[in-house]
Design a protein that fits this description.
Helix content is 22%, strand content 37%. By secondary structure, it is α+β, with helices and mostly antiparallel strands. It has a 4-stranded antiparallel sheet with strand order 1-2-3-4, with no helix packed on it. The chain is globular and about 35 Å long.
Length: 76
Amino acid sequence: MTKYSSGSKNIYRFDTLDGTGTFSIDKKDNTVELLSSECYLKNRKMNKENLDYILFVGKKKIIEMNFPESFVYATH
């Protein structure tokens, strides 16, 4: 994951086995929002359960690590 900042939000880009995307974490209240996702397979969407898990684990690790510039973690 790689971090970008926009106001009070840190935006992280992620890559998975089935796609890529971005999500934000608000530094004020730690809310998470999926901003985009794109499946590598044409005319398909990324698995919703995988996206939810990426956001859950990503948020937890990012906050624990005090909003790092980048990091790697495995979900499977």
